[in-house]
């Protein structure tokens, strides 16, 4: 008779430990978010409760979501933003260089007919004058 009551008490104790254990485990991402002062800690807490009804399928994602944020660095994208800002300025500089080169090419193209006609005039003038042979060739 005593063993029946002991077994019943042990069964109730194990059930309570499992019940509270599951609740404590599902609250771990919320505790992480709270300690890191996560901006979405309420959403993580509510999603943890929803995760209880989905057999903790969401729980690993909540863990990741809670651990991504750090108060001192935020989401960690500041370095990426700085790199994008630097690349944007480099790109603007390259665009300016290309535009200046295009203007130079346009100027050269507009001056090309006058240069080529002056070269042709020089060629015709030199071909009309006979060249004198070198003394060495004589």
TrEMBL record:
Annotated region (Disordered), positions in chain: 112-138
Keywords recorded for this protein, A-Z: Membrane, Transmembrane, Transmembrane helix
Domain of life: Bacteria
Pfam family, any one: DUF3302
Name this protein carries in UniProt: GTPase
TM annotation in the entry: 6-25, 46-66
């Amino acid at each position: 008779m005593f063993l029946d009551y002991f077994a019943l008490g042990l069964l109730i104790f194990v059930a309570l430990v499992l019940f509270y254990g599951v609740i404590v485990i599902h609250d771990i991402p919320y505790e992480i978010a709270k300690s890191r002062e996560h901006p979405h800690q309420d959403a993580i807490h509510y999603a943890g409760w929803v995760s209880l009804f989905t057999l903790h399928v969401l729980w690993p994602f909540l863990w990741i979501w809670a651990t991504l944020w750090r108060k001192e660095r935020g989401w960690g994208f500041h370095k990426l933003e700085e790199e994008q800002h630097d690349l944007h300025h480099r790109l603007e500089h390259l665009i300016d260089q290309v535009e200046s080169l295009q203007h130079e090419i346009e100027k050269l193209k507009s001056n090309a007919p006058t240069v080529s006609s002056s070269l042709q005039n020089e060629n015709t003038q030199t071909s009309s004058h006979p060249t004198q042979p070198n003394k060495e060739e004589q």
